Structures are given as structure tokens and as C-alpha cells.
């Protein structure tokens, strides 16, 4: 079922060349890839990418329970200190630090997926789900667009939108990711443009609402981009918004500092409909392991980061948008 990196991207190239509509799922480290035509998609795989979906809408009618057991703050702070040492040494400027959090809910994975409100959702065989607010890339004609999301604040904080947009640390973090994604799109296209810079979306986060800051970057792809779809995706993965910058050294630091395997968390999934591509970053992610549920979340660390604030953001991102 899971293909290795070489075979997986080759399969995506083949499906693209044949203009076959298909679903793809790519792990964070690109070592596990799923690519299956939509017409033969297994019955226990469901997706939603904005208005593309393969399951009926169903509204929640019953109450549910949800609890979380976050990593202890001293453990988080210790990891963050290691990152700050790497930043001071010039090995990274921005690194997305993540942890996994044991959770419990009266709802099953399937129920959480079904009722969750999000633009990008995936349910895979009762193994994992994501309900992500973040697009990775989409195409329209020969134009590719990406929407890096970097910067989060509790919407209930007084003047929250003004605060997040005028926060120097958040501004610096966002600029670094926009610059990284501009460079990534420049690998596969030309005429790279930042079309919208730092706009705010309101996102339901359980009992809270969050403001999240994004930008829109576009580029022009070669006419034959559909024939090399796997190669194109491989060239720009993993996503810059969930790694950091510079990407290569930052990914190496992440593997040394994080105390677990990300797996499919912070990977990407998407649909090619035979003409266009639409994909999401697999954040807001829950996986099942030995009948226990684990939620994976994180945030960007820069030299100006405050450990308490970053720890609170990590916990805020562990929620069910029901």
C-alpha cells in the first residue's frame, strides 16, 4: 500500500501523465507515499479539499468529551533552548518545533473526522485523520499558488488582529517563511510573486477561536507540469511552513531535537482531478497507536520566541473543531 520515495513519486508522475484523477498522501520525510486513482479508492479513505469531497456532510447532534495531557513545560523549554543554541550558532533562523499529546475523546476517529469543520480533511483507514486549515499548493491552468500559514493568536485577546499583525517576532517569522516558499516555487516555476502578504483568517479551535496569518505566493509552471507532477512535488517537500529556514539544516536539527517520529503529521495530501491539483498540509493531526489517540502540534521558534507563549500555542492547537 505504501510506496517508498522513488516508487511513490514515479507513480504520481505516471498518473499525472495519464491525466488520471487520484488521491496522494506523502509523509513528512517523503519515505511513505500513497497514490491511488479515485475510481478505485478504498472505501475507508475519505477526503475533503475545500469543495472537493467523497463523503456526505453530517452535522453533530450529540455532546462529546475531549481531554489532553500536554508535554510538561520543562521538557518543552529544554527542547526550545537547544533550538535557540542552534539559532545563535547560525544553523537555523526559524524552526517549527512539534510534540505529540495523548488525548481522549468519547468520539471515534471517524466521528471526529466527520464532524470536524476544516477546509482540508483526511481520514485514512482508522489510522489517522487531519482537519487542516492550511493549503499546501493548488494549480489553476499553469499557475501554482501556495499559502504559507505562520502566526497564531487567541481571537478573544483584546485587539488580537492588530496585535498579531504588528508583533515584530511574528512578522519576522512570517517573512522568513514567505521568502522560503518564494524560493521553493522558484525551483519549479518562473514569475514568482507574493500576491497577498499577511492576511488574517478566523479559525474555530474547540471552544476558542484563533486568528491565523497567511500569505499568497504564485508562480508560472512549465506547460508540461502535469507529466512531472511527482518530481514537482518532491522538489518542494517537506513544506516550508512546518520545517523552517534554511530548510536542509533545519530538517536535520528537527530530527535531532524532536522526541518522536512525525510520520504523516506535517506531510501533505491532495487530489489531482486530471487537470488541476489541490493539496493541504497535514496539521491538526490525530493518529491511533495501540488503541490510544495522539494529537501532534507545534509552532515556529525564532530567537525572539518566549517559551511560555510558544508552549501555550502548542496546547491551543490541540483541539477538535466540532
From TrEMBL:
GO terms for biological process: L-tryptophan biosynthetic process. It comes from the Bacteria. Residues 75-317 form the Chorismate-utilising enzyme C-terminal domain. GO terms for molecular function: 4-amino-4-deoxychorismate synthase activity. NCBIfam families: PRK07093.1. PANTHER family: AMINOBENZOATE/ANTHRANILATE SYNTHASE, AMINODEOXYCHORISMATE SYNTHASE COMPONENT 1. This is Aminobenzoate synthetase. The lineage of its organism: Bacteria, Pseudomonadati, Campylobacterota, Epsilonproteobacteria, Campylobacterales.
